[in-house]
Protein: Flagellar basal-body rod protein FlgF
Organism: Ramlibacter lithotrophicus
Amino acid sequence: MDRMLYVAMSGAKQAMEQHASVANNMANVGTTGFRAQINAFQAVPVVGEEAATRAFVVGTTPGADFRQGPLSETGRDLDVAIKGAGWLVVETAAGEAYTRAGNLQVAPDGQVTSAAGLPVLGDGGPLVIPPGSTISIAANGLVSARVPGNGATGLVEVGRLKLVNPAADELVRGEDGLFRMADGLPPADANPAVAVASGYLEGSNVNAVDAMVDMIAVSRLLEMQMKALQTADENAQSANRLLAHG
């Protein structure tokens, strides 16, 4: 009886966590550069002094789906999409973080920021645009500004976007949706092989139909685990009644 409770209880807990993960994916179908959350589970025996006759379910490889999302043309000079693998680098209070959201902005002080207001880093630190300039971003991440009054050739090199490409298993997602290097690993180095497409944005790699199917499947799984818990309770009550009248 208690073995049934172990399996159903832990299964229900993991199903609830997966339900929350799928719901988060669905909520970010339209989020620029979003990477879908994935989960995997396995049965693990309960370790104790007795034989391993009980088991529970644990998450084994929670992580992200790093497949590229669809690219859409915007024509906006400050929009960039990573072509293939790679990341833009932003500066947070906790250090460097990585994002695929290329809808860049220019703050009132001229600093290039992410849509969330975080400084976007170049190879030499934060990028600052001269006031009133028009911007162009090359495929290699080089940011140039055309300063008013400098004529057709008055291009000023602002810097180069810091583009990195760490291994997927070295990255962890933070609660803010940004990725960072795993504990104990140094910040990723700039990778000259990473390229960007100016005037484009990468959409979320979440497929809305697949996410809806996953939501239905997880809901059914949770219902099944809750039914198993109810059945175990009913069986225990029946056994108690039999012992009471024995």
